[in-house]
Amino acid sequence: MKSKPIHFNPKDGSENFEKPAEYRQIIKDLPATRHVMEIKKYSDRRTKGANAYYWVVVVPYFMAEMGLVDSESNKNYMHYTVLADELRRVPDELRPGKTKIQETHTMTGSEFWKYIKKCEYLFHDFYNGSFPPPKSLGYDERKR
Asked: Does 100 or 2 have the greater pLDDT score?
């Protein structure tokens, strides 16, 4: 079962769910087993600027150095296989001692920019190159 975030704001010690009916339905649909609920501070997801910079600059730079033709399948190969295996492995909380690949769509904005920075370090280490700075190309990391 894939988890679904439930947004709420604590108010005077009690919860204030943004969509109470949705919360009740999710709880009702849970199988009758033990569950763990994780509460963490809300953080915005990656921005459109960060996403565009990644797909227009980062992925194509790796592809060019590897001699891959610019195609959708090669972009997917770079993202879902090469970069995922190298840079997005995280501990799997459901399988102690194992890892899983963190999907970029689950990253917060700051996590995604850190991931892009890791990509740049890897690119520098393997190809002794660097990416143009995002702002020099008009990619504002705060822009939605």
From this structure: 100
Between CA 135 and CA 119 the distance in angstroms is 17
Q: Is residue 86's pLDDT more than 90? A: yes
Indicate whether 35 belongs to any domain.
yes
In the chain, the number of structural domains is: 2
CA distance 113 to 77: 20
What are phi and psi for residue 89, nearest 5 degrees?
-80, 130
Whether residues 25 and 63 share a domain: the answer is no
Predicted confidence (pLDDT) at residue 118 exceeds the cutoff of 50: yes
Domain that holds residue 19: 1-42
Select the more confidently predicted residue: 79 or 43. 79
